[in-house]
């Protein structure tokens, strides 16, 4: 018998939050959705019982948490499922949710630790997971490195803030503009990326899917538009090591770069939250939203699941954008296979029974592309109000203890 729960999904603008809403409804749960902007596609799903607009998750964190708790109380919400970096903020205030609603997030010390790319590099070294040569910018010694190098923020998402530095002179120009303790220097690796999406419970990896972005938009590199699942035992083992080492619970997603010459997968990032792999997982036999609820309601009934390979997801309107971008640039060879079979593939936004969210998300992304550059950038504009901004959250002693343990200070 299926347990019918009232589930609140936050950050409904993300396509995987929309997937979550649809999959939970399919399971028979009553779904509520919330976001900090009205242009969040998931708010307009026909499967949402009621939708809400909450305050910015970081700058107005107290108001955000109070708003969520009010929804929980008034609508008797059983399960809270964070859709993006709001998970970090909810984790920070985790004790305020105890006894009021069920949620599956790690302690903030572990979330903050994994959100820090430098901490991840030190953790990887400690537990023997390959990672790129990495130092903090403050500790960088040019004589010990070969150029070019990569400069990136310790705490960020996607490709925001990453710089490719060709030589020492270019590096000197940057040195006065960056906080030397908040930026990393890394060796560049071949851009053959594999991503994972998984869910863990009490230090055990319950399910994990590995996938590769076959196409991205913008065409030169960006958001995956077509993703296929793979079976790479080394990557699965590495994610399991991390989960076990820090006794992790919740969604966990990681990025790896493959160096063919060294035949090695190097970990570059860990995201302690949901990711686009959620629907790749579903196409590959893993229903992550169902697992999330089941682990909260009856954890003993949940058994580990292995993903199928060769299946995946695509985002229809972004695929169209990719096609025309490639066409207009005259890169005709890249079009090979574009019109091939999509057997085993699922569109992660379009649903003929629930069409409105796809149109809302399309116009939201379009407005971000057109207006976003005037407000700090396309991605920054799209993510307005939903990002974890660490300056608003004094780190706890437990975070510092983890950093000291793995020499990440």
TrEMBL record:
InterPro entries recorded: ATP-grasp (IPR011761), ATP-grasp_PylC-type (IPR003806), ATP_grasp_subdomain_1 (IPR013815)
Signal sequence segment: none
Keyword vocabulary terms for this entry: ATP-binding, Nucleotide-binding
SUPFAM superfamilies attached to this UniProt entry: Glutathione synthetase ATP-binding domain-like (SSF56059)
Transmembrane spans: none
MF terms in GO: ATP binding; metal ion binding
All copies of domain ATP-grasp, residue ranges: 121-297
Descriptive protein name: ATP-grasp domain-containing protein
Source organism (scientific name): Kosmotoga olearia (strain ATCC BAA-1733 / DSM 21960 / TBF 19.5.1)
């Amino acid at each position: 018998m299926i347990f019918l729960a009232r589930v609140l999904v936050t950050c409904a603008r993300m396509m995987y939050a929309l997937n979550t809403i649809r999959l939970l409804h399919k399971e028979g749960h009553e779904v509520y959705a919330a976001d900090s902007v009205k242009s969040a596609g998931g708010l307009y799903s026909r499967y949402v019982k009621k939708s809400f607009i909450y305050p910015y998750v970081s700058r107005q964190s107290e108001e955000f948490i109070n708003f969520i708790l009010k929804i929980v109380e008034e609508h008797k919400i059983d399960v809270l499922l964070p859709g993006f970096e709001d998970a970090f903020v909810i984790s920070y205030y985790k004790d305020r949710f105890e006894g009021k609603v069920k949620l599956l997030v790690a302690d903030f010390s572990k979330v903050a630790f994994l959100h820090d790319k430098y901490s991840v590099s030190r953790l990887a070294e400690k537990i023997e997971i390959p990672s790129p040569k990495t130092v903090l910018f403050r500790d960088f010694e040019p004589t010990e490195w070969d150029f070019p190098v990569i400069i990136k923020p310790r705490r960020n998402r996607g490709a925001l803030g990453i710089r490719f530095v060709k030589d020492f002179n270019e590096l000197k120009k940057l040195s006065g503009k960056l906080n030397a303790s908040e930026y990393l220097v890394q060796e560049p690796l071949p851009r053959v990326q594999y991503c994972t999406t998984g869910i863990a419970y009490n230090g055990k990896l319950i399910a994990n899917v590995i996938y590769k972005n076959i196409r991205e938009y913008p065409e030169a590199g960006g958001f995956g538009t077509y993703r296929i699942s793979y079976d790479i035992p080394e990557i699965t083992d590495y994610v399991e090591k991390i989960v076990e080492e820090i006794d992790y619970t919740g969604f966990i997603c990681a990025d790896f770069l493959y160096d063919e010459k060294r035949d090695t997968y190097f970990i570059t990032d860990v995201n302690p939250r949901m990711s686009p792999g959620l629907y790749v997982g579903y196409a590959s036999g893993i229903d992550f939203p169902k697992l999330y609820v089941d682990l909260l309601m009856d954890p003993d009934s949940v058994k580990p699941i292995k993903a199928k390979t060769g299946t995946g997801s695509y985002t229809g309107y972004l695929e169209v954008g990719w096609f025309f971008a490639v066409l207009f640039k005259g890169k005709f060879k890249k079009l090979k296979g574009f019109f091939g079979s999509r057997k085993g593939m699922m569109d992660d936004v379009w649903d003929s029974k629930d069409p409105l969210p796809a149109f809302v998300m399309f116009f939201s992304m379009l407005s971000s592309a057109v207006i976003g550059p005037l407000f700090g950038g396309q991605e920054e504009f799209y993510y307005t109000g939903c990002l974890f901004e660490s300056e608003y959250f004094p780190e706890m002693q437990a975070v510092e203890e983890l950093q000291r343990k793995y020499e990440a200070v």
